[in-house]
């Protein structure tokens, strides 16, 4: 790495630095680049110390929350995309008008998830190139589009997403699957920009196993089937419950399904989906319990078959992954999926959907299994095989293959190096793009954002 590369100051922009796959990637990318000698600062509109990754709160990373004082995250649990865009615009304006961003002397911008603010960023800092990391097109993630008024509401945001991404000097995607989707959705953008595949990573360093909440208790139950995902319907966690319920009662004896993952009480979907999963499990005759920390989890009666662990801390998550006999990863057409890598790294076999990102991470029959998420019976068969038919030696061999694959292909160092190379090759967008940024931003603010900000300001003060 050259001396110049060591003095780069990379400024990240991420909407909500909570707990999720996108947030894990941002944290890993920032830490990896920092280890390679770069200065890193992360700007976000929200970061709750009680609901974020350790590196975002323990001083490892310089995380600054800005642009969160005028616009709420939603209005009556609606208009999330509009509010997200306005919050990003507010953030960029705040750190620009106060000279906070200029004082950092940024050399590269790194944005992800939300590209709406890139024209403004480019207009204000025309000589700083932006790398945009596309986890997946937001327009394909929006719900309720079958309703005409929802589709009409989304039209300007969908158009703005593609157009604003063109202001990035470089665009990266998280998998070949996502690249194919972006290319099909935005062929003109894909033709104008090279879409570089940069896989998310996991930390492969040989760290000591973290202690959990009270530094004395540990998770010791090894007879569990584990699922780790945010409590969202698209994560298809109900598949794990249905497959587990398909095991004969004697086959479930002394075995527990643990459903852990991101849960934010501010997010209506998290709350509703958790309740739906509880009703599903109980309707299938499974005894359930819900806990929020290790202390209460260890006090759960032995006859509980399905345990919900909400927003588990990093130490407990690692302990669960190490102790599980099988990780089940249920989302269909997942853009990438970091949890399968985390499981394979510690030698835990993975059962995942045979669509999307897992096709690029899990090797069927070698590091785990890939099965059709529509065929519940096939998932039940794999669970039964792992619990009652495979020998310890067979499971250990599969686990070793998983560790080798992750260390070779998905390390933090490898991802940081690829990002560094990509950033080193890029410059600012063409002058024609920079000129368009200035003109469009002026019109956008005067005609659209001015009235909207005024209305939302009045709403937020109520």
UniProtKB/TrEMBL annotation:
Transmembrane segments: 436-459
GO MF entries: GDP-Man:Man(1)GlcNAc(2)-PP-Dol alpha-1,3-mannosyltransferase activity; GDP-Man:Man(2)GlcNAc(2)-PP-Dol alpha-1,6-mannosyltransferase activity
Domain of life: Eukaryota
InterPro entries in the cross-refs: ALG2, Glyco_trans_1, Glyco_trans_4-like_N
Domain Glycosyl transferase family, chain residue ranges per copy: 220-405
Pathway, per record: Protein modification; protein glycosylation
Residues of the Glycosyltransferase subfamily 4-like N-terminal domain: 19-205
Entry's localization field: Endoplasmic reticulum membrane
Predominant cellular place of this UniProt entry's protein: endoplasmic reticulum
Cellular component per GO, a single term: endoplasmic reticulum membrane
This protein's record includes keyword Cytoplasm: no
Family designation: Belongs to the glycosyltransferase group 1 family.
Name recorded for this polypeptide: Alpha-1,3/1,6-mannosyltransferase ALG2
Organism expressing this protein natively: Pseudogymnoascus verrucosus
């Amino acid at each position: 790495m050259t001396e110049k590369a060591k003095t780069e100051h990379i400024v990240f922009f991420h909407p909500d630095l909570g707990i999720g796959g996108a947030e894990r990637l941002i944290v890993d990318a920032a830490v990896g680049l920092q280890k390679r000698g770069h200065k890193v600062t992360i700007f976000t509109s929200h970061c709750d110390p009680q609901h974020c990754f350790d590196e975002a709160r323990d001083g490892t990373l310089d995380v600054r929350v800005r642009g969160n004082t005028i616009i709420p995250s939603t209005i009556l649990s609606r208009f999330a995309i509009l509010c997200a865009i306005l919050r990003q615009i507010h953030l960029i304006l705040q750190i620009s008008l106060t000279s906070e961003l200029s004082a950092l002397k940024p050399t590269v911008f790194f944005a992800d998830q939300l590209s709406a603010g890139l024209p403004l960023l480019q207009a204000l800092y025309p000589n700083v190139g932006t790398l945009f990391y596309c986890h997946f097109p937001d327009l394909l993630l929006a719900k309720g589009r079958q309703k005409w008024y929802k589709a009409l509401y989304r039209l300007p945001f969908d158009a703005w997403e593609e157009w604003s991404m063109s202001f990035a000097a470089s665009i990266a995607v998280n998998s070949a699957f996502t690249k194919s989707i972006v290319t099909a959705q935005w062929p003109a953008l894909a033709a104008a920009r090279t879409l570089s595949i940069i896989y998310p990573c996991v930390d492969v360093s040989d760290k000591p196993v973290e202690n959990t909440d009270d530094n004395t208790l540990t998770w010791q139950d090894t007879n569990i089937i584990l699922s780790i995902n945010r409590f969202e319907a698209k994560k298809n966690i109900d598949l794990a419950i249905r497959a587990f319920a398909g095991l004969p009662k004697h086959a479930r004896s002394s075995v527990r399904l643990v459903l852990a993952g991101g849960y934010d009480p501010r997010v209506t979907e998290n709350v509703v989906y958790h309740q739906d999963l509880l009703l599903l499990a109980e309707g299938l005759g499974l005894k359930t319990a819900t806990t929020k920390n290790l202390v209460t989890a260890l006090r759960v009666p032995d006859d509980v078959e399905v345990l919900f662990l909400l927003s588990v801390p990093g130490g407990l998550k690692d302990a669960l992954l190490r102790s599980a006999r099988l990780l089940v990863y249920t989302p269909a057409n997942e853009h990438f999926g970091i949890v399968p890598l985390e499981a394979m790294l510690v030698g835990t076999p993975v059962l995942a959907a045979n669509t999307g990102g897992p096709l690029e991470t899990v090797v069927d029959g070698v590091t785990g299994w890939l099965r059709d998420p529509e065929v519940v019976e096939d998932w039940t068969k794999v669970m039964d095989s792992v619990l009652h038919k495979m020998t310890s030696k067979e499971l250990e061999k599969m686990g070793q293959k998983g560790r080798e694959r992750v260390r070779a292909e998905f390390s933090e160092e490898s991802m940081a190096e690829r990002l560094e190379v990509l950033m080193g090759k890029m410059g600012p967008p063409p002058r024609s793009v920079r000129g368009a940024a200035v003109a469009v931003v002026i019109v956008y603010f005067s005609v659209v954002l001015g009235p909207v900000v005024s209305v939302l300001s009045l709403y937020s003060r109520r």
